[in-house]
Amino acid sequence: MGNQIKTAYAELFDTYPNASQQADERLVNFFRSKTSAGDRVVQAQTATFKTLCEFADFVTVEIAPSRSREVTRESIPSAPRAMASSQGLTINLNIQLQLPLTENSEIYDKIFQSLKKNIITTE
What we know:
Layout: H1 2-8, H2 10-15, H3 24-33, H4 39-56, E1 58-64, E2 67-72, E3 82-85, E4 88-91, H5 105-120
Helix pairs in contact: 3-4
């Protein structure tokens, strides 16, 4: 998510490379300079940016004693997602669903039956 935030707010990150760590006042001043909207809109823009940054999990990495740069966990190499086993290749898959809000439990049953049939069952 950090990369997407940096893309969406590229001009802000060009101005402040560690924009996610800036004080509210600096962010408000930045957003105010980019719009003719009132204070309420600028406050909302600032709050939105800060809320998104809470979910981005930014990490600071030292480059040299006097310099640092901000990177996201997405840009840090992670462990391989697949591992070889004696039976062949194992692939781990994480599926996240957003289920519809309903009182009808048959809908949930059908969703999970379809998952079992099409994803879980190996024939």
